[in-house]
Amino acid sequence: MLFTCPTNLDIWSNYFSLVFMSTRALDMSKVYQNVMSLNLSSFHLLDSPSKASVFEAITCVITAIWRAKWRSHYDNVGIDNQSVVD
Question: pTM score, two decimals?
Fold first, then answer.
């Protein structure tokens, strides 16, 4: 669900366009395989003064998606893709 839900696909797409260098079209099956195996060497962050690692960037989006899902479930708050990415 984290990688296959259509709502999450929009979130992943938006996040990747903001944080990572685009080398090719986003392939969620490849992202899933890389994240699950912790093989993050194919992801490259855009230049930023924050000095975050790729692992931290991926962890942030995963945490944000799950937080939004749980808020939707428990607090009956709709998922706003833009607020998840922010």
Answer: 0.73
